[in-house]
Design brief:
The chain has 9 helices and no strands. The chain has 2 domains: 79 residues, Orthogonal Bundle (Rna Polymerase Sigma Factor, Chain: A); 91 residues, no CATH class. The two termini are 22 Å apart. The protein is globular, with a radius of gyration of 18 Å. By secondary structure, it is mostly helical. The longest helix is centred in the middle third of the chain and has 21 residues. GO terms for molecular function: DNA binding; sigma factor activity. Belongs to the sigma-70 factor family. ECF subfamily. Keywords: DNA-binding, Sigma factor, Transcription, Transcription regulation. InterPro entries: RNA_pol_sigma-70-like, RNA_pol_sigma-70_dom, RNA_pol_sigma70_r2, RNA_pol_sigma_r2, RNA_pol_sigma_r3/r4-like, WH-like_DNA-bd_sf.
Amino acid sequence: MFIAVLQPEDESARQRAELLRKYVMPHKNLIYSICIKYTYNQEDIEDNYLEALANFFKYMDSYDPARPVKTWIYAVTKRLVADLNNRNRNRMPPDDNIDISEISSSLSDEDEPSGNSMGMDNYREFYNDDILWALDRLKPIYREALLLQQAGYKLGEIMEITYNNGTLQTRNVETVKSRIFLAKTQLRKLLTRDGEKRMD
């Protein structure tokens, strides 16, 4: 996963961005090393690192400067990675048989993300210019699958939505996984691990 950061248009977001630059970004290598150390699956390290940065941005104003910053960063990152490991462990295995009726009945509203305010119609509000530039260079079917995952949909839900949208010919989770994988691979070529456009 890549970093999803709201543009700092309001005062609160500006303050959090400033605190993030001051306290967290000087220690981004520490965060990355914690992700390497505690992430179960090697392929999730980059995603967990970007999730950690997004998490720090979201809750930056809760940091107490009286606390040692490295201790705080270590504790927060380790706890987040543990949560992400648990979430990723519950992902569908590649050979899992999917009960379509079960998935359909679990969807509350296919047009709204699961417990998230980001959707296909407003995702541009949630990413910085460099990430939007990279997203615009993805094939639409890859971008759609990735953004649905970022919005909080599970693989089975993404399969149903893209099938109903006509962008998936058959209900096949492996195709969805492949599209997400290819989208992330392409984004890593276009962006640095901090979500900035590569200059090389």
